[in-house]
Design goal:
Length: 970
């Protein structure tokens, strides 16, 4: 049952009470207590905590001011029965009546009073009512006096009952949160201005056909479908953990988590023999030894969406934690997506979830046997046998056992929280295992739900003493949660995992599958001749998957574009990549030639395949949830500027790159309304666009659990939003495809574009003409709805947007964001990663917004003998289509590479992963190192205790890192 249906059911019950008591509802107070309070609370969903009564204003005291959050949002002026007069022949249905008209003239004094209270505080909606009759009006209307506009009038209880859906949408709390009243009043006040406008696309969806594929493409598509299925890890869980993209942050988290786990385990007794003497030793040891820190038993793994937090934790317990430690751990993973989110049932849900997982992990049958339960409750058994059931225990053992069994049944079936505590203690004391509760996917729930879960888990951690908690959360959730009181009460450790580069994800997974899988059947002997005369045998196609490295790894822009379009969701990146690689636009023959001849794949062709997929032109929704969308579309029921979405993205993009922290990279809806009001953009249009953009994931709310876009809600641009803004303002292929497929309000322009698209003219000529027509249409339509007179600095992003759109019409190439001047001068870059074994790496430049891929062997020249991670080097850049490349490494920038030679000793080394931590002597500072910092012929001899001299650098985060080893002590 929907909320409105439930509210209507409650209304009917309430009306029975009101009608039975209506003769006694005379005074204003009667109306408040018997009707108004109950209607707002029981039917419309307003909590009494949101009521402010008898609020003082300059012009008097308002009866009610109702709040959404902390913001006053609704004024209600109550009157005694008989004061309000509504002159209408129709009393059993709602009416829309002009406020200054004759029908509402008897009520105008109350209306003016409510308006004066509301206008003083900028409250948008006011209500005048005696409990029976209701007048609802908007206090501010653009370009007119509120008196000249209509109000929604409900002349009787029957009118509310018969028109309850509109009454609910106007005044219900959930609708007020979403400002539904804006849309309703907009339709009422502007019904003549916003008539339906027919929209026409130059190329309608039913005219867009599928592209023909070659026989080679059909066969290879089967291979790539299977290859990408493996690549996503859907049927191969091993690939998720084996191909986790490591970073310095994840390596530090590995080491630290291992130390924390060992610290807690070291305090769990291992020997059940010699209980008396060992207990004494344990007590003496705990008196003198430091117990595990409370903060070490609660860990937050923080990272953006797509950073692989869940995979990281699974990998840690299955691959990183040594087997000797792992066998003594009992990880309990709870997926909060299985919860309803109901605060009233959250505690019982998590209790049952943890109990189920503990029973499954502790007992072979998935539940404890009777003897197991006797062991779990042996202390109570002893208390009962020596206490209040002593006589029964001594004289009738069967009766005692029955009483104890009844007690067990009550504890296990009814006292579930106590049973959970017993299970935790049983795991620790009897099975000598460390319970580790992993609470995953809490991000989508309300802060109240998170706090309840957090407090619940900490309560049981304190009861069990040796129990560890892990919370994988997004950076936004961590930011919000860190400000709560409950977070400051319980100490915790936090580790940050950055979003992995899609290039590295592709590289690792492709390498893994090339080692593990066979993509083609060797018994087949089919052969193909490409358009360039290259013969390819089907049996050798398994190696052809390496061409993906060129398309998705070595090209700086393709991997970045895919990552942003999917908001760095790895599974979606793989699915979108499959769409591109199997598209007839890409042409399998071109991929074969690229693999055989090492010719690079065209970025233009990559974007064309991304947009069109298997079709002759762009087709909306053909790319799935994370496909490309048209940012220029408008609504025929309420037309607005076709650039409205891009104007919103332009503002949020500027805010994102100028903000210093998470909060500063967001804007409140209220702030955006004020900003765009200066451009004469209607608040209703902005609200509708924002809601649609949230659903399309172009923008995202600060709190993902919030169900509505209230004024106080904060909004930020997503990676997908950034990608679409760049495509819309800089990419010729995207702009052309949107021009021929987006439904527009100018039929003449649509027909003209259609005629040229279907003509036999040269393709370049067609593209130029279509882009110019579409650009002119966008600019002229935008000017109808939006003022362009603002010349203040904060509107520069809006002016830049218009310049970019006009540039398409001027036939200017929409190139990359980097100035060509960068290609003619030497730039200082920092080596963000370099693998000498595979000879590839990435260099970051402050002048660019992405890292640049390079291979030492592919450089035109290099004047440095060796480079290491975090080195500052002087480089010369070049250009390959839209791709920036490193042409040469010219020198080592000594003044920026501040290193100091120190003596170190290895404390920890993971030979399988090739990294470790050392201690700088004689200080206790830990320093991270990778095996590549040591000579190649010595890497197999690395071990704990090894002493060596090394160049040490201190990174920007304060941590130390070995640049290279200079001497090894035998």
């Amino acid at each position: 049952m929907s909320n409105v249906d439930l509210a209507e059911k409650r209304l009917k019950a309430l009306l029975v009470d009101i009608r039975n008591d209506i003769s006694f509802i005379e005074s204003e107070e009667d109306a408040k207590v018997k009707v108004i309070n109950r209607l707002f609370n029981e039917c419309l969903g307003w909590s009494f905590t949101q009521f402010t009564c008898e609020r003082q204003h300059d012009c008097g005291y308002s009866d009610y001011v109702l709040k959404v959050g902390d913001k006053p949002s609704l004024v209600v002026e109550a009157k005694k029965n008989g004061i309000l007069g509504i002159e209408s022949a129709v009393l059993d249905k709602h009416r829309t009546l002009k406020i200054s008209g004759t029908s509402l003239r008897p009520s105008i004094a109350g209306i003016q009073q409510a308006f004066s209270y509301a206008s003083e505080e900028g409250i948008p909606i006011a209500v005048v009512t005696d409990g029976i009759r209701w007048i609802i009006f908007k206090t501010w209307v653009n370009g007119a006096s509120y008196k000249e506009k209509d109000a929604f009038v409900f002349p009787s209880l029957e009118a509310i009952e018969n028109s309850f859906s509109i009454f609910y949408e106007l005044l219900a709390y959930e609708c007020f949160e979403q400002k539904t009243f804006n849309f309703i009043f907009d339709q009422l006040h502007n019904n003549r201005q916003h008539l339906n406008v027919p929209l026409k696309a130059p190329l309608e969806a039913n005219e867009i056909g599928l592209l023909q594929k070659s026989s080679l493409a059909f066969d290879l598509e089967k291979i790539f479908n299977g290859f990408f299925t493996h690549l996503t890890g859907e049927n191969n869980a091993e690939i998720l953990t084996e191909c986790f993209v490591e970073s310095n942050e994840s390596r530090i988290a590995d080491y630290s988590l291992e130390k924390i786990t060992n610290s807690i385990l070291s305090n769990i007794s291992r020997d059940n023999s010699k209980v008396g003497s060992d207990l004494t030793k344990l007590i003496e040891g705990n008196v003198h030894a430091e117990l595990p820190s409370e903060s070490d038993m609660s860990v937050f793994v923080v990272g953006p969406t797509g950073s692989g937090k869940t995979t990281y934790i699974e990998r840690f317990f299955s691959k990183i934690l040594p087997a000797s430690t792992r066998k003594n751990c009992l990880p309990i993973s709870i997926n909060c997506l299985d919860a309803t989110g109901d605060g009233d049932t959250s505690i019982s849900w998590i209790t049952e979830s943890i109990i189920f997982s503990l029973e499954k992990g502790l007992f072979d049958e998935g539940h404890p046997s009777y003897s197991d339960l006797q062991g779990m409750y042996f202390g109570e058994y002893q208390r009962m046998s020596a206490g209040y059931l002593k006589k029964i225990y001594e004289n009738d053992r069967n009766e005692f056992d029955k009483r104890f069994a009844d007690y067990l049944e009550k504890e296990v079936r009814q006292n579930r929280e106590s049973y959970l505590e017993s299970l935790l203690n049983f795991a620790i004391r009897n099975r000598k295992k460390l319970p580790i509760l992993v609470l995953d996917n809490t991000d989508e729930f309300s802060l109240e739900f998170k706090v309840k879960i957090f407090q619940f888990c900490h309560a049981y951690r304190r009861k069990a003493k040796y129990c560890m908690l892990m919370f994988p959360v997004t950076d936004k959730s961590a930011w919000i949660f860190s400000k709560t009181d409950i977070f400051t009460i319980h100490q915790s450790r936090s580790f940050f995992l950055p979003t992995p580069s899609p290039r590295e994800v592709f590289r690792k997974r492709i390498d893994f599958l090339n080692r593990k899988l066979v993509a083609a059947n060797d018994t087949e002997r089919r052969a193909y001749l490409t358009s360039k005369g290259i013969r390819i045998e089907f049996k050798s196609i398994s190696k052809f998957a390496q061409v993906l490295e060129d398309v998705f790894v070595e090209n700086n822009y393709t991997a970045k574009t895919l990552g942003e379009l999917t908001n760095y969701n790895i599974r979606s990146i793989m699915n979108l990549s499959k769409r591109i690689i199997t598209s007839p636009v890409m042409r399998i023959e071109d991929l074969v030639v690229s693999y055989v001849t090492s010719e690079p794949i065209s970025y233009t062709k990559f974007i064309d395949a991304l947009i069109r997929g298997d079709y002759e032109a762009y087709k909306a929704d053909s790319g799935g949830e994370f496909g490309v969308i048209s940012t220029f579309k408008v609504d025929s029921e309420r037309p607005h500027s076709p650039l409205l979405m891009l104007r919103i993205l332009a503002l949020l993009k500027t805010v994102k790159f100028s903000g210093r922290d998470v909060e500063e990279r967001h804007l409140t809806v209220h702030s955006m309304l004020q900003y765009f009001e200066a451009l004469c953009i209607d608040a209703t249009d902005l609200q509708r666009s924002l809601s649609e953009m949230v659903s399309l994931r172009l923008v995202e709310p600060y709190d993902p659990s919030a169900s509505s876009l209230s004024d106080a809600q904060k909004i930020a641009i997503t990676y997908k939003g950034l990608a679409h803004y760049d495509l819309s303002t800089r990419n010729n292929v995207y702009f052309y495809q949107m021009a021929v497929t987006t439904a527009i309000s100018n039929p003449e322009t649509a027909s003209l574009i259609e005629a040229w698209y279907k003509s036999n003219r040269q393709f370049a000529e067609i593209v130029t003409f279509v882009r110019k027509q579409f650009s002119n249409y966008l600019i002229s339509e935008d000017a109808k709805y939006i003022s362009t007179d603002q010349d203040r600095e904060q509107f520069e992003c809006q002016r830049e947007l218009l310049r970019n759109i006009k540039a398409f019409g001027a036939d200017k190439t929409s190139g990359s964001t980097e100035s060509t001047a960068l290609l003619t001068e030497k730039l200082v870059g920092m080596v963000s990663r370099y693998d000498p074994d595979k000879d590839f790496g990435f260099i970051s430049f402050k002048e660019l917004n992405h890292d640049v891929y390079f291979k030492m062997s592919s450089l035109e020249s290099t004047k440095v003998a060796a480079i290491y991670e975090n080195d500052f080097i002087l480089c010369t850049l070049g250009k390959r289509e839209r791709d920036i490349v490193v042409r040469s490494i010219d020198s080592f920038v000594a003044e920026l590479n501040i290193v100091k030679v120190e003596k170190c000793a290895i404390r920890h080394y993971n030979a399988h992963r090739g990294y470790g931590f050392a201690c700088i002597e004689p200080s206790s500072n830990e320093v991270f190192f990778h095996k590549n910092a040591f000579p190649l012929n010595f890497q197999e001899h690395l071990k704990v205790g090894l002493v060596f001299d090394a160049e040490i650098r201190q990174k920007g985060d304060g941590r130390f890192q070995v640049r290279r080893c200079t001497n090894i002590y035998s």
